[in-house]
Structures are given as C-alpha cells and as structure tokens.
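Predict structure. Chain length: 285.
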Amino acid sequence: MTKRELIADAILVLTAMIWGTGFVVMKNTLDSVPPAAIIAIRYTIAAGLTALIFRRHLAGLTRQDIARGALVGLLLSGAYIVQTIGLNMTTAGKNAFLTTVYVLLVPFGCWLVFRQKLRTANFVAAGLMLVGIGCLSLDGESGGLNMGDLMTLCAGGLFAAHIMAVERCQKKTNTYALIVLQFAFAAVFALGYHLCLERGMPFSVHAATVGGLLYLSVFSTTIAMSLQNIGQSMAPASHAAILLSLESVFGALASCIFLGEVVTQTMLLGFAVIFAALVVNEMKK
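Prediction complete.
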C-alpha cells in the first residue's frame, strides 16, 4: 500500500468516526428541531465556513461547475433528510448500521454507470454486509424492521448515488470548490423542504440544541464532509464506501455509551460480519 493510499484510508476512517458520533447528537437535537431544518442550518453554517476556508478555489467557476454542485447538493440533502426522518422513528444504532447499505450499492452502481470492473471480493463483501445488516434489522430484541429502518435504507441508496456523483464530478470540478457548492445547494434544498413540508412542527431553541447544531455543522459537516471529499479524490468510490461504512460501528458504540441503547448478541454478530466484509473487500485478487 502506497503512502497516498494510507493517507486516504486514514482520512476516510476519521470521517467515519466523526459521522458515527454524530448520530447521537442528531438523535437528541431532533427532540426540538424538525429534520429538514437541522439539515438547512448545519449546511448553511458549513457552506459559510468552507467558502471562507476555500475561497481561493472559487474563482473562475463555470455554469457546469455550479450545475455539478447543484446535483451533488440535491443528492446530499435528500439523503440526509430521509435519513434524519428515519432516525426520528428508530434507534440511533440501527439508523447508523442500516445507512451503510450504500456499501452494497456503490460498487455495482459504479459498474453499471461508469463501467468500473468488479472483483470477486466485491461480491463476497457485499453479501457479508447484507448479512450483517440483516442481523441488526431483523433482531427481534431490538424491535425488528420498522418504517424508520425502511427510510434509512432508502437514505443509504441516496448516499450511494452521492458518493458516485462526487467521484464523477471531481474529475471536472475542483474538489474544494465542489465542497462549497454542494454544501450551499444542500442548505437551499433543505430550507425549501422545511418551508414547504415542515410548517407547524415543534421548533424550540435552548443551550443543548445550539450546542448540538454547532457540533453537527462544524464537525459532522464542515470537517467530516470536507475530509470525505478529499479522501475520495485519492481513492476509488467503492473503496471509500467500505471505509466510510465504519460510521455504523462508531455510531452503534456511541449510542450504547451515550444513549444507553442495548447491544444484543445478534447485533454483536452483525458487528463481526460487517468487520469481516471490510477485511474481505480489502483482500488482493
């Protein structure tokens, strides 16, 4: 493994760790702020911060660059809105695990859309990942499969499309400019959803809410998603998806530690199978 590959892997694992802990913060923040409003706030702040940090990369943007940013931002906001609504109807641990269905979809989506070659390890890893997800979602002790879980699976599909779109758009648009553009458009789309479909929903602001929103905006969005884009610029989408799926492990662990969610034996089996999928996917031909 080259130094570049090691750096990319470290960046992607760190991203997964930050995202995983964010599930706990998001779950608590949903008690006082509607889902799309959370997304709109966190991406507005993130867009402002990244525009300031990466401002020199925004010079000379073309209409095509803006269109790519809009596409990636639409997929991003859609994925997070659906995931957050699902989180409101299920546990943080299950939401974290089921979101990683994108790992199953990215390699096959890249094969279908970009004609990227699949390896035997991709099929085996995808199968193992499916088994691991099944151990969690069908575990009777954790409540079985519910509507929140189904919405989370749909969010996973949107995250897969987002990862693929980022890989393709980065080939023609500067990585750092794309970060700012997708954040800005994600904020606009989420705000539109909130104004149209979340009227009348409870919205209260207190110290814990402000702290949660700042954490989600600065760490889970500005830092983690910038790292995701940088890491993806150094690694194939299918490889990045596997490492990013570690957010499910970090998310479930954080849910147990901070929210007191119970880990059953079946869920532990799911941990083990998902870890096996990660190992298999990294095996050489």
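Summary: Residues 3-281 form one domain.
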